[in-house]
Amino acid sequence: MVYNSAAELCEGFEAVYQPIQVQLTIEIVDKRLGPVKAEAEIAIKPVESKGFLEVLVDLESEHIFADENGSIYGSFGIDQSIQIYDEVLDIIPLDDLIGKENWKVTVDSFIAEEKLKGQLEKVLNNYQFSDMSGKYKFRKICTITELQFLK
Description:
By secondary structure, the chain is of the alpha+beta class. A hairpin with a 7-residue loop joins strand 1 and strand 2.
């Protein structure tokens, strides 16, 4: 089906593209931590007024705990789970979809496994952990070692 206007495309879009559930295994560069499991929901929402679709993620990890090492030069302790809500992974301009027969191929390319891995890693690497006191914020380098789509 070819859509001829933004309004036409946005009207029933969320019925066509239901949110996708994925399970992740995240490696955090910190010798105190092993692999961390997380679940995420990827949704594509039309923003007609701005002329694009947003690829959004809600992500929650299992609880992460790493004690402080006691030295003033040591690492901060972690006692939390990663929680990311309504974070925009990417945008898809509506102009790239309107009037095109293969618009679904374009949208699907934004939620392909390798593309999602890269976008999620970018979001995770920008995530700010806080130390156990809540006083300090810091980032950790994260990589996704496994991404699995749930049916």
